[in-house]
Design goal:
CATH topology of the largest domain: Rossmann fold
Distance between the termini: 79 Å
Strand order of the largest sheet: 3-2-1-4-5-6-7
Strand content: 15-25%
Number of domains: 2
Helix content: 25-40%
Largest sheet: 7 strands, parallel
CATH superfamily of the largest domain: NAD(P)-binding Rossmann-like Domain
């Protein structure tokens, strides 16, 4: 075919790619890690109204988030207003099947779903049912499956965001930074089996006690009672849980002895303790 025929065919086929503009519409970003924050910021730059939700936000990431992104306290609130929902969460026990029938029912009618997190985060049958009913306008993902390939309302793209030498270097630098934060302060970020917990000690903190425990009632009371028994003043207490493991950062005004650690560790439900001394 000559150039004129090619141009004629291109013009004729344009109608098959008619879409909608994202500018002026609302994007909900579920998960505000480094990728989620970049997606949210990019959506702001494309003149979108952006809503963000993350149950365990990492401070370093939130500091990079555009002030124009509206943060909400519940996933349901984010989903209800969005024309587009983009999911950016790690894959673990709590997020497997996160995008369920309940999740999709909370979305606005006719919204579009993006999954560039991990394949099992999405319940494929629930998504297919939502598309069939008209609840969901479409689904865009880079995780192909037999059920989704060929569906007229599902767009599958290559999963190759990390396929660069620069990305490998960035991952190595991030791992070093996170390891340093753990060694120096006991902070946990981007873990697949621990909750995100971050706390920067004040200059008056002498010792930081870390307690890792099974997520069960009474653990906070247990450790605070033992510290009180030894007249150790608690300056701040940070606790997070992922539903399986509890992680506690307890800043103390004075030293925490090995004797105190052992008494805490002898209790059922305590997995491990660690003391970081700053003075």
């Amino acid at each position: 075919a000559d150039d004129a025929a090619i141009n004629e065919k291109v013009e004729a086929e344009k109608k098959n790619f008619k879409g909608i503009e994202m500018a002026g519409k609302t994007m909900a970003v579920i998960g505000l890690g480094k990728i989620g924050v970049r997606v949210a910021n990019a959506a702001v730059e494309h003149n979108m109204r952006v809503i963000g939700f993350d149950p365990f936000p990492v401070l370093d990431n939130i500091h990079d988030l555009s002030p124009q992104v509206k943060l909400v306290r519940s996933r349901k609130e984010a989903l209800a207003e969005a024309d587009f929902v983009s999911v950016h969460v790690p894959l673990n026990k709590k997020t497997t099947g996160l995008v369920s029938t309940e999740f999709l029912d909370a979305m606005a009618d006719g919204a579009l779903l993006f999954n560039y997190a991990r394949g099992p985060v999405v319940d494929e049958d629930a998504v297919l049912a939502a598309i069939a009913s008209g609840k969901l306008q479409g689904h865009i993902t880079d995780f192909p499956s037999k059920k989704m390939i060929g569906h007229e309302k599902i767009l599958i793209t290559p999963h190759l965001g990390a396929s660069t030498s620069e990305s490998e270097d960035n991952c190595a630098c991030m791992a070093v930074k996170e390891l340093m934060a753990y060694l120096e302060y006991g902070n946990i970020t981007h873990s697949v089996n621990f909750p995100n917990v971050e706390s920067i000690p004040t200059v008056w903190v002498h010792s930081r006690l870390i307690m890792i425990n099974h997520d069960k009632p009474g653990m906070i009371g247990l450790v605070t009672n033992i510290l009180g028994k030894y007249d150790i003043n608690i300056m701040s207490y940070t606790n997070e849980s992922n539903g399986v493991v509890g992680y506690n950062i307890i800043d103390c005004e004075g030293p925490v002895s090995r004797e105190v650690q052992q008494e805490i560790e002898e209790n059922e439900g305590v997995i491990r303790t660690r003391v970081i001394t700053f003075k």
